[in-house]
Design brief:
alpha/beta; single chain; Rossmann fold; 34% helix; 6-stranded parallel sheet
């Protein structure tokens, strides 16, 4: 089946939170996409070297719990099944075998870094970039990228912040979907 317009929302999702949910809802309401694929990074090479990252299977289970019921959203394990680092360019090339267009959806905090991504020069020629606003961060994409802003009220939340709070159910309810909490609490290593 060919999907005409596909959005790619990739990430580590350690853990997935209400900011991710808001971004996916906003993207699905733009009318730009027939499907949005949430792709959980198997080996998030830009993060795994800096800090401990929960196992990919656990992060996938959390993403499925957080996003599985959202309109137009499908959670994928394609990067987990791939051996080696998870590169967006590889995922985009796979998706373009079944989609006419792929837009990469990223937060404004990552937009400035996109030039540092693996094979960014090739990626630039294959995708448009939908940028989700973040509080206190200007939506700036380096020159040469076809980019646009996804309209939504910014959510001031990050996975790294959540990992720093006491992991009690009461605390976690403020930041992550209810269905994610028992999965998140199952691994505190």
């Amino acid at each position: 089946m060919t999907v005409r317009r596909l959005g790619l929302f990739g990430g580590t999702f350690d853990p997935p939170h209400f900011g991710h949910v808001a971004a996916l809802r906003a993207a699905s309401q733009t009318g730009r996409f027939d499907l949005i694929e949430v792709t959980v990074a198997g080996d998030p090479y830009l993060k795994s070297a800096r800090s401990g990252v929960r196992p990919a299977a656990l992060r996938l289970a959390m993403a499925e719990a957080a996003f599985g019921g959202l309109d137009l959203v499908e959670v994928s394990d394609r990067e987990i099944r791939r051996v080696g680092p998870s590169y967006t360019i590889d995922t985009v090339r796979e998706l373009l075998e079944a989609a006419d267009e792929v837009d990469v959806i990223i937060g404004a905090d990552l937009a400035r870094q996109i030039e540092q991504w693996h094979d960014a020069s090739a990626l630039r020629t294959l995708v448009r970039v939908g940028v989700v606003p973040r509080p206190g961060t200007a939506t700036v994409v380096p020159g040469g990228w076809d980019a646009y802003e996804i309209p939504m009220d910014p959510v001031d939340l990050s996975s790294s912040f959540i990992r720093g709070v006491a992991p009690t159910t009461r605390n976690l309810r403020k930041f992550i979907p209810e269905a994610v909490i028992p999965i998140y609490e199952s691994f505190q290593g």
